Amino acid sequence: MNIEQVREYCLSKAGVSESFPFDDTALVFKVCDKMFALLGLDSGWLNLKCDPDKAMELREQFAEVTPGYHMNKAMWNTIQLEGSLTNKLICEWIDDSYNLVVVKLTKAQQAVLK
């Protein structure tokens, strides 16, 4: 999956916005002002929120998945997009990250997303 495909997929989700709060190469995706993905435009990496147990499993299973770069390493993974991971798998992980954030939103915020 390339950078533009990741960007388009993230933006296709309800209530998602994008911004550059850190620098001009780290594109942040938020749902209701809560970050769920961080995309490195210069080096092809993607940080995603993840259940801590699942995060460890993915790191053990896939060489492209490492502890979240500059993130809480228990709850974030960094994925190298240049590798053997399928688009379907990356989309599933984006969905998981998005859903982890959405379930923590208020009921009112969740209602807006439907």
Give a structural overview:
The protein has 114 residues and is an alpha+beta fold. Helix content is 37%, strand content 26%. The protein contains four helices and six strands. The protein has helices at 3-11, 52-61, 87-102, 107-113; strands spanning 16-19, 26-31, 34-40, 45-49, 65-67, 76-80. It has a six-stranded antiparallel beta sheet with strand order 1-2-3-4-6-5. A hairpin with an 8-residue loop joins β5 and β6. It starts with a helix and ends with a helix.
Side by side, the strands of the main sheet go 1-2-3-4-6-5
Q: Percent helix among the residues?
A: 25-40%
Name the poorly predicted regions.
none
Rounded to an integer, what's the Rg over CA atoms? 13 Å
The separation of the N and C termini measures 27 Å
Largest sheet data: 6 strands, antiparallel
Strand content: 25-35%
Number of helices: 4
SSE order: HEEEEHEEHH
The overall average pLDDT, rounded, is 95
Structural class: alpha+beta
